[in-house]
Amino acid sequence: MKNILHNVFLSIGLGTIIFVPMLIIDKGLNDTLVSVLMWFGASILYGLSFTLLKLKTKLRLPIHILSCFLLTLIVRCGYSYYSKGSIDFTRLFLITIPIFILIYMLMYFYMRYFGNVEFIKKNK
Prior knowledge:
Elements: H1 2-27, H2 31-49, H3 60-84, H4 89-113
Helix pairs in contact: 1-2, 2-3, 3-4
């Protein structure tokens, strides 16, 4: 099961790397593709953020959560400004919090039990 889920996520990532440029070539750079590119860039930064979990501090998980949340909020604000020309920060913040928590919990569960990133040292 662990290898199947790993391969699924790997193939989604590789497919995105191929699919996004092809869409831009075929359809041009419209609003939807700008959003896809912004989240694709954020996904790369999310991946790099896993290096924070290798820090030698007990605060590594809160630091990781905070950095991922700030990245999510920045991308949402950036896209809001791009698409509307303004940012309703309070609304974006209040909508982002529960969605982020839910997705982070799902990803935490996946990485804890099926992935290869060690969030918390397991007792031996």
